[in-house]
């Protein structure tokens, strides 16, 4: 085992439970914007369609194929039109309401605080995220994660997005540390694992769903629960 001095975490889907927080927000918006009055879809259909569309748009965003503005606007437009609403029926302000409400939700993955309490005295902890700067800081503040981390690197602040190795190198340069002294933990194989590997950083692939997929080369480590980090580190 290498001697690590710094641990890098992704935020969404790794510490902050995006799916749970997003689901709670979308159910609230379904009621708030009276989406049931159209009689074409229920709350569950709204959530599932949004999740499908949002995941694909984030993939395009991470690959630099769409902008932040397009992501935020298109995810609700495509969701609601896909569920049968006409353009004149689309509720005004729903995207802004989601962006305002969702980051204030506080659900995190099991053992998050326990593991961070364990790691903080031993390592420098940092966030490396493709999420939007103002939103990520609200999430971390609302869920009481801020105090655990020394640096929060977003794609907006450094000009690069994972898996671009330059995003990781930006943090290495800022901290004046070597890649072999770092370990990256994240749920996205392409962005977190392959991106860190390209920068010479060891990786922990966080796979809570235990999805069996061909991953070559394999990550340095793979875990399905954050509590496993206490055995690794």
From TrEMBL:
Signal peptide: none annotated. GO terms for molecular function: 5'-nucleotidase activity. Keywords: Hydrolase. InterPro entries: HAD-like_sf, HAD-SF_hydro_IA, HAD-SF_hydro_IA_YjjG/PynA, HAD_2, HAD_sf, PGP-like_dom2, Pyrimidine_5'-ntase_YjjG. It comes from the Bacteria. It holds the Pfam family HAD_2. This is Putative hydrolase of the HAD superfamily.
């Amino acid at each position: 085992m290498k001697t690590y001095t710094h641990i890098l975490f992704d935020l969404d889907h790794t510490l902050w439970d995006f799916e749970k927080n997003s689901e709670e927000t979308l159910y609230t918006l379904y009621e708030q914007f009276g989406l049931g009055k159209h009689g074409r879809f229920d709350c569950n259909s709204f959530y599932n369609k949004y999740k499908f569309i949002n995941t694909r748009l984030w993939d395009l965003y991470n690959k630099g194929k769409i902008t932040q503005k397009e992501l935020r606007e298109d995810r609700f437009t495509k969701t609601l039109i896909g569920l049968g609403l006409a353009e004149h029926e689309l509720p005004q302000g729903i995207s802004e309401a989601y962006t305002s409400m969702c980051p204030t939700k506080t659900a995190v993955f099991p053992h998050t605080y326990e593991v961070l309490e364990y790691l903080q005295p031993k390592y420098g902890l940092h966030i490396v995220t493709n999420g939007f700067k103002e939103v990520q800081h609200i999430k971390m503040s609302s869920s009481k994660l801020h105090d655990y981390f020394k640096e929060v690197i977003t794609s907006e602040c450094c000009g690069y997005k994972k898996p671009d190795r330059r995003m990781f190198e930006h943090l290495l340069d800022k901290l004046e540390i070597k890649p072999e002294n770092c370990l990256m933990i994240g749920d996205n194989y392409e962005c977190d694992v392959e991106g860190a590997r390209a920068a010479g950083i060891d990786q922990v692939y966080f796979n809570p769903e235990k999805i069996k997929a061909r991953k070559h080369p394999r990550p340095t480590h793979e875990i399905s629960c954050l509590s496993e980090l206490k055995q690794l580190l």
